[in-house]
Amino acid sequence: MLTCIKIHNHHMLKILLSAFAGLILFNASAQENYNLTVRSHMTFPGKSLANIGGYVDSLGNEYALVGTSAGLSIVNVANPDVPFIRFDVVGVDNFWREVKTWEGFAYVTTEGSNGGLTIIDMRQLPDTILTRVYRGNGAINNQLSTIHALHIDAGYCYLYGSNIGQGGVIILNLLDPWNPVYAGIYDDKYVHDGYVYGDTLWAGHILDGYFGVIDVSDKANPVTIVEQETPNTFTHNTWLTDDRKTLLTTDEVSNSYLAAYDIQDLSNITELDRFQTVPGSGAIVHNTHVLNDFAITSWYTEGVNIVDVSHPNNLIEVGKNDFTTFEGTGFNGCWGVYPFLPSGNLVASDIENGLYVLTPTYVRACYLEGFVNDAICGLQLDGVTVTIEELSISETTGLDGIYRTGTAISGSYTVTFSKTGYISQTFNNVQLTNGEVTEIQVDLLSPNIVSLNGLVDQNTLPISNAIISISDATSSYQLISDANGEYSKCDLLTGNYQVVTGKWGFVTKCEANVNVSAGMDVYETNLLKGYYDDFQFNFGWISSGTANSGLWTRAIPAGTSLNGTPSNPGTDVGGDCNGTAYVTGNTIGAAPGDNDVDGGSSILRSPMMDLSTYGEPYINLYRWFFNAGGNSTPNDTLYLRLVPQNGNAVVLKKIVSSASNSAWVNEVIRVRDFIPNPGMVQFEMEANDFEPGHLVEAGLDRFQVVDSLMLGMQDNLFNAQSFFKVYPNPSSKSTTIRYDLDAKMQGEFEFRMCDVSGRIMQTQTIQATNGVIEFSNASPGIYLLQLSEGNRILQTQRIIRTN
Q: pLDDT tens digits for 460-478?
């Protein structure tokens, strides 16, 4: 049954639900023992205990099969209040014992040398037992000495972590339970423990940190299907839920989890939830079993706990008894628990303190679930803390805005939703009921949250797929403009932000201190056309090469030095937005040579550029090249190239550098000196490390392609505010310019139109801060329109005049 409470009033600060019964003040997570009662306790003087199993004889007597350091004790627990030892089976002295049963026989493993597999015929209990030790036949004849754990399913016994091979899985046929027959082996890697159902083995690869799904339909040739990492990457124990749709795992390390995985589609195994009985305590989970969709788990220093797994995406503890004398981390306390006796009683082994017989009270969890949205834009709200106040139980919403929590105890509770910057909402008298899901859906309101709507264009033409970065000291967001050049971020806190906008083929624009506040108009960003990249964004440069290390990477440079001389840049060129450049290798705190170009080439290639519309294209960039060290004269190179779309690469410059040239160097290259009629091209840099080896580091920043008249004024051009717009462009007659200057600006302003050779065609001085002017009488061709203040260029725009 599901109870659903939906809250959609954006301005409600506190909502009272229908009145329910009186409040129950109970904190299940704070109780040491609940829904699980100790009936009796038996000590084993001089012995430590290991894992435990169970058995029922033909008369209905129940037994605990208790692994001890001296062998196996068969303990009659028919009267759970007065257990007694019926038989002791002596084995080699060893701390580890595991036991499973099949058709009236018990199979006991140990890691004690030459312990083999002990087989106990219990069919004549309570009067008689028979024992023997199996050491292998067939391919493992008399070789079986040590075994860590085992599982039995459908007449086959699976032995884990033995002395055979890598300690994988030995498979025995139990058609004759007294005389197992070797059937096959899986020995790709060590298996610590596992669970088998039908033709599938769920293996705990503890040393590798994941569980493996292994097809054992052909016992002579098991095959791994898929592997899945678990939360603490030390996968110990696995067990399927009753419907075989969910796998539970445990990781045998400090602060470990009981975790649940959806395994219905083995090509898309998905973690559903993870649980800790005392978060932050360091407690180590050990073995879990499933009965009627309850996970009964031994948890070393925390005893035994019971978790309702009927909703595997919301694991809720519904019972616990911490009978151990230990706390925190450590491999002390409860080794194992067996939950499958017909009476329903549990038997548990405490390593130091003996056998415990317990009676559980199984109850279904009371579930509290739902999702939280932002009240302004309706988007899912992550990081919201959902607290059941009386229990001090808290859960946090994920990126999808969903939360799931609950308790074992039904009652009426107070539930609070809170997030920094938002107005908290509290719900009183929320009724939680065993076996039911109560759902609360909430819209949280922030008085400081506003919506930013933006537009990216070029002379009123929208620019789609532009990248917009919005950031302040604590948050950073990246958006993409749509087909109309529009974007929206609806849950920003009011304040000042840096807004950086860019797209390949346009000049990246960095605007600091953009005030985002309620009621602001659409924020428009006008980009200039042109190829420019200061590597604030990933525009699709490709890094490749044959070098063993030092491939190009886009990053904030982390400097290195050789004998006091910078070898790798510690900063970018500057003058752009956020300090990013392309460098060959970039490791913070590295020594010179740790991540330099080594043993080959490191190549960086730009996206495609169309230079056919440039009258006089120049490449302007800043590069770094350091080549030093070794026992001979540095002989390594840095190549600058252009690669035509349909042609061979053209070398623009070959550089052999030394430590004395360790700096960012500005390079200006006239393209027509190398390609007379440039069209579609890519720019390429290649750093090479030749024999004998030397230290090789390279960098690239502030890459741009400009027309001749722009040379020497790149800083003005590429960080310019848009003071005027041109239309139409291209034009067959006159060109209209609408300009709007800042009223605070002073000085004499002038528009001038120049041809590609730099010859001034027309000029016009303007006095007002805004207005409209026209330029005409120009022949067909490409021109540059410049707005200047004295000797300072404020803005440059390319103009195309057609017939």
A: 899 999 999 999 888 889 9
The H or E element spanning position 771 is strand 770-775
- Domain match, 771 and 638 both: no
pLDDT band at 238 (very low <50, low <70, confident <90, very high): very high
Three-state SS string over 210-255 comes to EEEEEECCCCCCCEEEEEEECCCCCEEEEEECCCCCEEEEEECCCC
Does residue 453 share a domain with residue 440? no
Residue 549 lies in a domain: no
- Provide, rounded to the nearest whole percent, the portion of the chain with pLDDT above 90: 67
Dist CA 617 CA 24 (whole Å): 78
Helix (H) and strand (E) counts for the chain?
1, 67
In which domain, by residue range, is 404 found?
A: 365-444
Domain boundary among 510, 529, 548: 529
Cα gap 393→215, rounded to integer Å: 41
For residues 797 and 702, give the distance between their C-alpha atoms in angstroms, rounded to a whole number. 20
Task: Please tell me which residue, 528 or 2, carries the higher pLDDT value.
Answer: 528
Q: Which two tokens stand for residue 340?
A: 């499958």
Please indicate, yes or no, whether residues 471 and 337 belong to a single structural domain of this protein.
Answer: no
* pLDDT mean over 712-727: 54
Q: In whole angstroms, give the CA distance from residue 395 to residue 650.
A: 60
Residue 22 has pLDDT above 70, yes or no: no
Confidence of residue 658 (pLDDT cuts 50, 70, 90): low
Count of CA atoms in the C-beta half-sphere (13 A) of 536: 27
- Quote the pTM value: 0.64
Query: Residue 418, SS3?
Result: strand
Q: Quickly count: other Cβ atoms within 10 Å of residue 715's Cβ.
A: 12
C-alpha dist (Å) from residue 260 to 173, 241, 301, 525, 564 = 31, 9, 22, 48, 54
DSSP type of residue 426:
E
DSSP state of 87: E
In this structure, what token pair is assigned to residue 612? 């056919």
Measure the CA–CA gap between 679 and 610, rounded to whole angstroms.
5
Find residue 403's DSSP bridge partners.
Answer: 370
In order, the DSSP letters of 358-392 are EEE---PPEEEEEEEEETTT--B--S-EEEEGGGT
Are 333 and 350 spatial neighbours (Cβ–Cβ below 8 Å)? yes
Instruction: State both tokens at 676.
Output: 């007379």
Query: Which residue among 382, 410, 444 closes a domain?
Result: 444
Give the bridge partners for 773, in sequence order: 737
Rounded Cα distance between 157 and 72, Å, is 19
Task: For residue 432, give the CATH number of its domain.
Answer: 2.60.40.1120
Angle at 700 between CA 698 and CA 706, to 5 degrees: 145
Largest CA distance in the chain: 118
Quickly tell me which residue has 């590798």 as its tokens: 208
